[in-house]
Amino acid sequence: MAFTAPALPTVANLINGQWVDGSGSEILTVLNPGTGAELTSFSSSTAEDVDRAVAAARAAQPAWAALSARQRSVALHAIADEFVSRLPEFIGLEVLDAGKPVTAATEEELPDIADSVRHFAGAARVLSGQAAGEYVPGTTTFVRREPLGVVAGVTPWNYPLWQAVWKIMPALAVGNTVVIKPAEITPLSTVAFAAMAQRHLPAGVLNVVNGHGSVVGAALAAHPGVNLVSFTGSTVTGRKIAAAAAQHPTRAILELGGNAPVIVFDDVDVDSAAESITGAALYNAGQECMAATRLIIAEPVAERFLDAIVANLAKVRLGDPTDESTTLGPLISADQRDRAEKLIANRPASSTLRYGGKRPDRPGFYLEPTLITGLSQDDDLVQQEIFAPVMTAQTFTTESEAITLANGVDFGLAGSVWTRDIGRGLRVVNALDYGNVWINNHLVVAPDLPIGGLNASGYGKEGGQLGIEEFTRVKQIGISLT
Ligand code: NAD
């Protein structure tokens, strides 16, 4: 079936139910990473636009919070129904704007987003809390979960719609109102989602402000009218957001970068493990904060395992994301490709470029799937998040050495251990300083489960009951029995 391009939404701000252009003087362009061609452009926004959006969200919040959980859930399920009925349109927007290969978007990412919309639509129906009781003699005490007020969401470009949905839907479900700021290079799916969602919501409950992070994102993080900033993006930006939010203090959830270790012991089924790990490394062209790209392999099996990875990389079909046979699409931008190329070019002389490393001769922002071996712990390729289809390899001889290498970076988002020895697998994941760890698996993500990082990967959870409750505050109420 040939790819059909959807109609592109007009990128503007949604404030109090009205679409208005940003009041900034700059025009920002949105490119198709598969071709490098311009898709659309829009006016930047200012701190005054943010003020208006936050004021609209504040004004709408008490009435939205006063609805029952069921009433909010009915509205959110109406959004889910319409979203599912229009899924091909959203698939098309993510393919064009974010360079997602159409087959992966159709079979995996967009159905997962639809599932997330449905899951979070009912999120406020079963909130948890301590049982009421006489903890203090003569007084019955209980806790009440309340919405925070206004939630600001600041999202990255690697999963534009997925990230927007994981912030907007649970925040609304528990009674907050939202101002969302998409990454300026991938605003299309968030704008289209908001246009659809607002037909099922009172004006002001969901607002969108488009523009530069350093202006719009920074104004949201520092805004006294915002009660929580939910941010996904780089560690550098996360630090700025946390510092700005601390002034009031406003709560922050920071889902930042990662550099996932993948520890492979010598008892694995080499071909099957290599196939799963290659898939988890190249998903979304490696622009995935949990991508399985940092291999730490037991010496006895290392050569065989790396040969199997190379064989898998040779099977990758790099190409136009609108082509159904494409398994690896472009990177998001020329900047991201340049960054990855620079890291590859500056690799230490002692390392080996085992596969790939070049840009194909075609328009768009493509990079070959790449494997670099013989790296040491201090090398930039090991220490930094590459965010590209680039796998690195180190080897180990003892279990404790593997753990030391895995934990020897600033990040702490995700990691995995591959072994048939279940005791060893559990021992090692218990020792990993990471927020999401898996045995014989990688990239286990569902809206039912909390994800979130440690250390330089940030704090707070998204998804699961814990992630939903991040959007609430807890009040203790005690009543005298006399
Ligand atoms: P980024 O930090 O540059 O931008 C993310 C968002 O923050 C964008 O909307 C941007 O406009 C905004 N922003 C930029 N500067 C800002 C500022 N000073 N104040 C407020 N907002 C600002 O990151 P990116 O390049 O868009 O995204 C890639 C990064 O996101 C990677 O490092 C990746 O690991 C990380 N990421 C993490 C997760 C996770 O769940 N932990 C998920 C996806 C992406």
UniProtKB/TrEMBL annotation:
One of its GO terms (molecular function) is oxidoreductase activity, acting on the aldehyde or oxo group of donors, NAD or NADP as acceptor. Residues 19-477 form the Aldehyde dehydrogenase domain. The active site is at residue 255. InterPro entries: Ald_DH/histidinol_DH, Ald_DH_C, Ald_DH_CS_CYS, Ald_DH_CS_GLU, Ald_DH_N, Aldehyde_DH_dom. Pfam families: Aldedh. The keyword Lipid biosynthesis does not apply. Keywords: Oxidoreductase. PANTHER family: ALDEHYDE DEHYDROGENASE-RELATED (PTHR11699). Belongs to the aldehyde dehydrogenase family. This is Gamma-aminobutyraldehyde dehydrogenase. It comes from Mycolicibacterium cosmeticum.
